[in-house]
């Protein structure tokens, strides 16, 4: 009995964790444990033997049980102390500011443009970036053999084998949203549609993905004069220059008639661009009166309704306003560039608070 006692007390003292302790408990006191087996043998003993062995085995069982409990508590204490030591925290240290993100110029300018047009009563409309050939071209009065299709450097989606419908495209402009908005809302309507567009082109001022904002206003008596006013108001607010001057130049788009490209007065003196002064003109957008065929494609009766549309490049607006020379850098995800040209997340552009401060 003394041998058993020493063996288990030593083993318990040396146990490294709770699992080890449990193994020892089973080995000594479990159903087939060494001490349990001895206790079962008591029945075969003579009454005299039993009188000695009975209390001795019971005492041994109690001693082992308390040794197990004490060791378990000690192990738990040690584990807690180790956690307290490892997870120690000096709450008197000064806080370390987290690295701060910033708002990308494209997001900033999209917000600015949206705030300005919202103030003039334009709601925001959206459409898919993977667009059917019909919405991207036909519905905008660009039939299959029209030369404008070639000018768009279109990305085509692949077609299932044997499919003879024209392939879907990555939309080459935001103009298809005009059709979707007309179909969804009917007339009268006043929307802008900012979003991503795609063309297979790459140099300092072109990237295969870029951003446009489309505008559309349709009512019974909307004229070219309304278009001029809206665009002049927009440019004054956007460039934050009182004396902006626009030049409407006759042009051609299949989806508008008449069509005009709009240039803004600027100067390039000393290599820096200044808006609203000087003797240079820079093209900033395309526009016109919505073609009757486009109204029809949108489900609107051209004998009853008329309106204007315009489209401009958001990235280009950002480059002009914030003096960013290379468009490709917009999409490089270079943190140094983003920190330099980015905007604080808390400075939401509003007309009353200032668009860009
Ligand atoms: N969709 C034209 C483009 O991507 C831009 C444009 C021109 C949109 C005239 C219009 C418009 O709504 O009236 O080049």
Structure explained in plain terms:
The N and C termini lie far apart (89 Å). A hairpin with a 2-residue loop joins strand 6 and strand 7. Helix 1 packs parallel to helix 4, helix 2 runs antiparallel to helix 4 and helix 5 packs across helix 11. With 357 residues, this protein is an alpha+beta fold. Helix content is 41%, strand content 19%. The longest helix has 40 residues. The chain is built from twelve helices and ten strands. It has two domains: 85 residues; 237 residues, BirA Bifunctional Protein, domain 2. The model has no long low-confidence stretch (mean pLDDT 92). Strands 1, 4, 5, 6, 7, 8, 9 and 10 form an eight-stranded mixed beta sheet that branches. The structure holds 3,4-dihydroxyphenylalanine. The site of 3,4-dihydroxyphenylalanine has 11 residues, from strand 9 and strand 10.
Sum up the structure in keywords.
357 residues, two-stranded antiparallel sheet, binds 3,4-dihydroxyphenylalanine, elongated, alpha+beta, eight-stranded mixed sheet, BirA Bifunctional Protein, domain 2, 12 helices, 2 domains, 10 strands, 19% strand
Write the layout of secondary structure elements.
Elements: H1 2-14, H2 18-29, H3 34-41, H4 47-86, H5 105-119, E1 123-124, E2 130-131, H6 133-136, H7 147-151, E3 169-170, H8 176-185, E4 189-198, E5 209-219, H9 224-239, E6 246-253, E7 256-267, E8 274-275, E9 280-290, H10 292-297, E10 306-313, H11 314-322, H12 335-341
Parallel strand pairs: 1-4
Antiparallel strand pairs: 2-3, 4-5, 5-10, 6-7, 7-8, 7-9, 9-10
Helix pairs in contact: 1-4, 2-4, 5-11
The structure holds 3,4-dihydroxyphenylalanine.
The site of 3,4-dihydroxyphenylalanine has 11 residues, from strand 9 and strand 10.
Catalytic activity: tRNA(Phe) + L-phenylalanine + ATP = L-phenylalanyl-tRNA(Phe) + AMP + diphosphate + H(+)
Keywords: Aminoacyl-tRNA synthetase, ATP-binding, Cytoplasm, Ligase, Magnesium, Metal-binding, Nucleotide-binding, Protein biosynthesis
Domain Aminoacyl-transfer RNA synthetases class-II family profile: 107-349
